């Protein structure tokens, strides 16, 4: 049951957010590139903004998928994070975030990563609360919604398989795997 102040559905465009930030020297690591943690924090912020706007309530981050930094980000670049709600469940939302970095002198733009943040809306007492459904306004919106369903199915299948593999793990029977890796056993 939705709060009375919330509509039954909200369009994807209602909560689409772009956050742009200049990469200043204090964001750099010892190698002179931008810390991954700075980008993660910006991604969390923009995911929060998009999810909370759609939900009409504060949201919390539950899980993060697909964070791969494909290319380094340099000091002086203008980073933009483009976020939109791709999927909604009952109380959860999946926010897709595309991160691009622009060299302000040449104008060249690189795509550094695309990640997916699962957020859950909370009510005033901190309990998960229902979010409006999503109005899909373009074929792209439908593709993203379907992709999110597939991603969730895939993750659940993988998790079940991984949990089985872990519960069946007998270290003494699988020592041969360690022998093929770059480690040494000293006990
Ligand atoms: C996420 C949280 C709300 C789940 O609480 P819960 O009592 O298990 O609630 P529910 O089982 O009703 O799950 C709520 C929703 O979260 C989803 N969810 C729960 N765990 C999840 C996970 N690991 N990955 C993806 N979705 C998850 C559920 O599928 C459900 O979605 P739906 O309502 O759209 O179907 C709770 O674990 C929490 O508050 N975690 C802390 C989050 C936080 O504070 N983050 C900030 C970083 S410190």
UniProtKB/TrEMBL annotation:
Residues 13-125 form the HotDog ACOT-type domain. One of its GO terms (cellular component) is cytosol. Keywords: Hydrolase. Pfam families: 4HBT. One of its GO terms (molecular function) is long-chain fatty acyl-CoA hydrolase activity. It comes from the Bacteria. InterPro entries: Cytosol_ACT, HOTDOG_ACOT, HotDog_dom_sf, Thioestr_dom. GO terms for biological process: acyl-CoA metabolic process. Belongs to the acyl coenzyme A hydrolase family. This is Acyl-CoA thioesterase. It comes from Hymenobacter cellulosilyticus. The lineage of its organism: Bacteria, Pseudomonadati, Bacteroidota, Cytophagia, Cytophagales.
